[in-house]
Amino acid sequence: MSEAASTRVALTDSTALLPSLAPLLHEWLPRQRWFAGKGRPITAFSLVSATEMLPMHTGHAGTRTGIGLLHLLVRVHQPSLPAQSPDDCYQLLLGVRSVLPPLLAPALIGRAPAGRLAGRYVYEGMHDPRVARLLLERFRIPGSIGALRFDRGDAPITAGMAPRLLDTDQSNTSLVYGDSYILKIFRRVFPGTNPDLELPLALAREGCGRVPAPVAWFEATAPQPLTLGVLQPFLRGAQDGWQLALRALASGLDFTAEAHALGRATAEVHTALATALPTPALRRSQTEHLAAAMVRRLEDAAQAVPALVPYVPGLRTAFDAVAALGHRGRNWAAQRIHGDLHLGQTLRAADGFWSLIDFEGEPARPLPERRRPQPPVRDIAGMLRSFDYAARSHRPWNDEWAARCRNAYCEGYAKASGVDPRSEPELLRAHETDKAVYEVLYEARHRPDWLPVPMAAIHRLATAAD
C-alpha cells in the first residue's frame, strides 16, 4: 500500500460516520426546503452508501488536514403517514474542514461532537467553489468512484468555469457553471431512472429542441441504480415564464401571444415523447383506477383541510364523469408527459423561443407513478391552473386575463398537435380539479396566505356541472 493511500482517513463506513453526523443531521435536515418529512420526528438514520470524493489525510502526530468531500445516501427513518414513505433516502454532499472560512459560514451544518469527524466542521458542500469544480471535473472525465458512476454525452465539457449556487426555493439544488451549464442535484432520491434524465434524453434522440439535452449525469450503482444529478446547457438570457406573466399583468400587457406560443411548444414536446416512447391506451380498468385515485386524493385532502369539505360532492362529479365514460367503453390515449407543468417550468429566449424544463414530475409522488404514461391533458391542466395562479396573484384579480391566456394556450396546442384539449372536457375538468385539490393541500401546509388562490378554483370547478 502506498504512503498516500495509508494516510487516508477511513470514513466510508457507518460506524465511523453516523456517530459524527447523526446529531448534526437531526437538527439540520428538517430545516431544508427539500426535506419531505417535516412535522414527523426522526427516529434513526442508516447509511445506504458513502463515497469519499475528496479524501482527507492525516498529518504529523495523527492530526487531520485538508478538505474532505463525502457523498452520502442516507435513509431517514420516521413514523409513516398515509401515502408517505417512512424511510426516505436523501443525497448529501458534505464538506469537512478543520477550519471553516468565513465565506462558508452560511453553509455550516455543525461541528461533529464525536466519532471519526470529532471536532471538524461539516458543511453543505455545494456552497464550496472547490467542491463544485470537482463535480464538473468528474463529468469531464467520466468513470466510477466508489458507489458512483459519472457518464456524459458526446459533446466536450469546458473546464475551469466559475460555479455559483442558485438561491431558489425548490426541491433540489442547482449549480450554474459560468454561462454554459446548470447542474441539478436531486435531494430526495428513488430507485430507478429519474424522468428528468430519461425524458430529455428521449427528446434529444427525436431531435426536439424544446428541451435542453443532457450533457452529463451521475448515478448510484449500488445497492441499486438511481439517478443523482443531471448537467444540462444553461439557457443564458432566457426568462422564466412565471416572471414574464407577472410582469405582463403588472404592466397591463396582453399575454395571449406568449400563451399561444407556449401551447405550440407543449404540443411539440408531447408529439416527440409520443414518438419516442410507448403510448398505451387507457381502457376501462385503467380509467376507473385513475378516477378512483383522484377521489382518494380528494378525500385525503378534505380530511387535512376542512375548508374543502363543503365542495367535495361537487368536485367528485368531475371524477365520477370520467369513471362513467370509462365504464361505457371510452378509451383515452396515454403517454409520457412532463408531469408538473406550469409557467415556472418554462423559459423564453430573447428571440421568443420557448423551452420546457424540469421533467422530474411532482417530487412528492412515487417515482413509478411519475414514470407512468398518462393523458396529455394532465400537463394542459397544470398550465391552465398556472395562468389562474398568475392572474390571482395580481391585485386586482384579472380573471379576463387568465381566461384569454387559457384559450390562447389551448389554441396554440391544437394548431401544433391537431388535437384541441378542450375537445375532451370531462377528462380536462377532472385533471384540473385534481390539480386544484393538490394545490389546496400544498398551500395549507406550506403557504397558508396563498390558500385563497386554489380555493377560488375549487369553487368554480365544484359548481361547473350545475
Question: What keyword list fits this structure?
Answer:
39% helix; 20% strand; alpha+beta; seven-stranded antiparallel β-sheet; single chain; 3 domains; 466 residues; globular; Phosphorylase Kinase, domain 1; disordered N terminus; Aminoglycoside 3'-phosphotransferase, Chain: A, domain 2
Structure description:
It is built from 13 helices and 20 strands. With 466 residues, it is an alpha+beta fold. The protein has three domains: 3-125, no CATH class; 132-233, 2-Layer Sandwich (Phosphorylase Kinase, domain 1), CATH 3.30.200; 239-462, Aminoglycoside 3'-phosphotransferase, Chain: A, domain 2, CATH 3.90.1200.10. The strands form five sheets. It has a seven-stranded antiparallel β-sheet, covered by helices on one side. α5 (241-251) runs parallel beside α10. The model is unreliable at 1-10 and 58-63 (pLDDT under 50).
